[in-house]
Structure formats: C-alpha cells, structure tokens
Amino acid sequence: MALNGKTAVVTGAAMGIGKAITESLLQNGAKVALLDVNKTTGEALMETLNQQCGAGKALFLKCDVESDEQIKAAFQKTMETFGGIDIVSNNAGILNETAWEKTVSINLMGSIRGTYVALEHMNKLNGGQGGVIINTASMAGVGPLLSCPVYTATKSGVVGFTRAMAAASQASGYGIRFNALCPGFVQTDLLSDVTKKLGQFSHLADAAQQLIDTIGILSVSEVAECFLELVKDETKNGEALVVFPKGKTYINFPSLTQ
C-alpha cells in the first residue's frame, strides 16, 4: 500500500510508539487522526505535526479506547474530516499487574473495540474501501513474561484476535488485512515504570530486569519502521512480526489442519 493520500487512525498516539507511528505515517504522505486520552499532549503534538507536515494533515481527538461512544465518535469525526479510513493502528496499551482488569480492558478489549468500529467504515461489504489494521501486541504475545501474567494474556489475546480477524476477512471478502506488531522492550514510559507495576509479582523484578538486559531495548522509531512494513507490504495478512534490537522475525504458527 502506498501511503500518500491515505488516512490513518492511531490510538495511544500522543506518546511513545503511537507518536512514532503517527510521525512515520505523516512523513510518508498520510493524514492521521491521533486518538489519545491525554488532551494536552495530544493537541500540542497535533500543532507541531501540522507545522512540520502541512496544515490539516494531523487531527487530534480525545478518546478513551474503553468507551464505545468515544471510539465511534472519533472514527466518525475522522471520516467527516478526511473522507475515509485506510489504516488503523490499535496501539493504546498499558502494563499494570496491580490493575489487571483495566489492563485487559485497554489492551485487549480496546483493540477489539477499535477493530469492530473500524470495520463499520472500512469493510468493502459495507461500501468501505478496505485497507489494513495493525494491532500493537508484544513479544509477550508469543512468549510469556513471568513477571507480567495479565499483560502476557492480553497481548496473547491481541495476537490471536488479529490472526482470526485476518482469516475471517479473507474468507468473507472484507478487503482488510490484519497484522500484529510484537516488539520486545521499547524505550517508553511503560518500560521505565515497569518494575513499579508488577504488584504481587514484584519479587520477580530482578528477573524482569535481567531479561531486559539480555534482550536489549528498541527505540520507538525502530518499531515504527516495522509498522510501516506491515502496512506497505500487501502480501502480509495474519502475520505476527516480532521485533528485537538484534532483528525481526515473522512467527510461524502451527497449523490446526495439518
């Protein structure tokens, strides 16, 4: 998919990976709706991006991915402003084992909610123009993090949901590709606060730090580069791309029919 003239929606867009994805999309000619709960940071970023990339290319919309109403309103506003939606990045996420229900709500339910609302606008069977949806998962989605069981569960769920949606779309003729982006440890606020958010697993903080030291830390720009690969390469559907500082790999999942 060529990005010039396309429209994207990015959740969790104000900081971290979401910000890097937004910047990469704009630099490649797309228009972007930035969805985030952080109004002050989001609006400031929108102003900066419009100055850098051209007036009207970035639109900030305050949106909590836990709210059906807010997500529906944000997607509708994006349609009214830009005339269509081609790319969706369900990226909003948290890591907090002390608030496990909220972690499930944002990480997994937020991705499902964003996907289903996106389908209303993008599905070719409904008159949409198709496109691609990339869900931000994690390496925890393909291998467990011992200090973060609930985070692991949510990201595993995101990977499974993404793969099932890819198959359903292909079988149904939705015209939408689905892929999961699974980065390792990334230099964001989520990583810097991780040892404070382990709750009953805080005794495993040293083991978590040892894993970080062993694997290394990605920059947000490295993750955004892999996001663009999943968007641009139209052969990619139902993929889970794991990204580490040492390189990237597409996961080969076992087949249930062979």
Q: In a nutshell, what does this entry contain?
A:
The protein has helices spanning about 15-25, 40-55, 70-80, 100-120, 150-170, 190, 205-215, 220-230, and strands at about 5-10, 30-35, 60, 85-90, 130-135, 175-185, 240-245, 245-250. By secondary structure, the protein is α/β, with parallel strands linked by helices.
Describe this structure in words.
- This protein has about 260 residues and is α/β, with parallel strands linked by helices.
- About 45% of the residues lie in helices and about 15% in strands.
- The chain contains eight helices and eight strands, in the order βαβαβαβαβαβαααββ.
- The protein has helices at about 15-25, 40-55, 70-80, 100-120, 150-170, 190, 205-215, 220-230, and strands at about 5-10, 30-35, 60, 85-90, 130-135, 175-185, 240-245, 245-250.
- An eight-stranded mixed β-sheet has the order 3-2-1-4-5-6-7-8, with helices on both faces.
- Helix 1 (about 15-25) crosses helix 8 and helix 4 (about 100-120) runs parallel beside helix 5 (about 150-170).
- The protein is globular, with a radius of gyration of 17 Å.
